[in-house]
Amino acid sequence: MVRLFLIIYTLAATVLAGSAVVAALTMGRVDAVSIIVAAVAGAVVALPVSWLVVRTLQQQA
Predict the structure, then answer these.
(1) Which of 17, 30, 54, 57 is the most exposed place for a label (fewest CB within 10 A)?
(2) Tens of pLDDT, residues 19-33
């Protein structure tokens, strides 16, 4: 289960961090701190999302 979680987290963190950075840039936040905060926030949000996806996949299997 941990291995699947890490694989899903890698994908989810990339997508969510990238989306958060694009959102920050769209709002005109072009300073480095805002971009880093957006990327970290996306990576942190990916933790529970990945856990929920893995739990759902485990229940269906």
Answers:
(1) 30
(2) 999 999 999 999 999
